[in-house]
Amino acid sequence: MPKPESFPIDKIYVPVKRKKALRPELVESIAESILEIGQQAPIVVRRDEDRFVLVEGLHRLEACKALGEKAIIGLLGSAEIAHQRTLLSHGADAGAEHDKMARLKKLRLEKEAAEKITLASRAVMETGSAELPRKSPEKDIRNNLKATPSRLNRRTSASTPKTLSEWLTQQKRDGGRY
Question: What pLDDT, on a 0 to 100 scale, did the predictor assign at position 64?
Fold first, then answer.
């Protein structure tokens, strides 16, 4: 196990991908913690010619920079260890991200369902009763037991318009919305 050592902050390179994950509120809280109790966990860097590349500890590094430190405690690791840690962290992040997205989708669907129920209950309250207006059964041939077969045929053939203009005419006649 490598021993922690001090690394000059200005010699540590932070990859662009890592910089995208920076959360300023976390840096601020870590900086406050470092002021109170000092740096507890070392960062991990790997050697790359005349500089060091950050493997782990972006927020700790940024907190030390914000405090004006010139050096930071860290561990020197190899490129293979760095790659393994990166793969492990991305695998955990992907699973956590997937779980988070699933929870957000579930919450969104629940919210949409609640909104639909609220709108439906408002519509019922506005109408004054829970019953929806219905056609009288006398107007509907299917419910009229006294309908003759000729009336049924005439009615059903007229109820299936063959063109758009026939359909519009039927909608106007029946009081439908189009």
Answer: 93
Helix or strand or coil: residue 94? helix
Cβ pair 61, 93 in contact under 8 A? no
| Structure tokens belonging to residue 139 | 């107007």
CB 92 within 8 A of CB 63: no
Q: Are 72 and 40 in contact (CB under 8 A)?
A: no
The encoded tokens of residue 62 equal 């940024």
- Inter-residue contact 90 to 54 (CB < 8 Å): no
Pick the more confident residue, 44 or 85. 44
Q: Which of 96, 81, 89 is nearest to 58 (CA)?
A: 89
Q: Which residue has the higher pLDDT, 44 or 130?
A: 44
DSSP at 132: P
Q: Which pair of structure tokens corresponds to residue 63?
A: 């907190």
Q: Which residue has the tokens 């709108």?
A: 119
The sign one gets for the Cα dihedral 132, 133, 138, 142 is negative
Signed CA dihedral, 69, 73, 75, 76: sign only: positive
Give the residue carrying structure tokens 């005419």.
169
Is residue 58 scored above 60 in pLDDT? yes
